[in-house]
Amino acid sequence: MTQTSDTLASLVAALGASDEEGKAPPAVAWRRFAQKFLRDDETVLLALEGEGWTWWDSILVITDQRVMRMRQLPFQPWRLKQQAAPAEVLGAEFRPWLVSGIVRIRVRGKRPLRVMSASERTSRAFVDRLHALVHGGRG
Fold it and tell me: Superkingdom, according to UniProt (predicted)?
């Protein structure tokens, strides 16, 4: 699949918006990810990289067409673990847990999509922007 620069740019911008310092990652670091998981006509609205204390790392990606949770294991590529249509999203929540916290996206009729995050501020901002999207805004 060829990847439009707009789709990749929207992913990089969403990742930068969820960064503690507001720094967008280099596009080249996410090009392969975008080519594998994003469609040319998709726009990434929100993204939250997991900063969990487990041996795997997840990422939540909200596009204008779907909500996805991907996971990467050591020495393995990213894999799509769960996805849902935006209309199935009921909301999200952040729950502090020990030194990190868990962001859960509630989905009608399915298990929640979740990621562990070490940053409470970033996680709460992600949840707030997702609620804005669910209630008709654009985050």
Answer: Bacteria
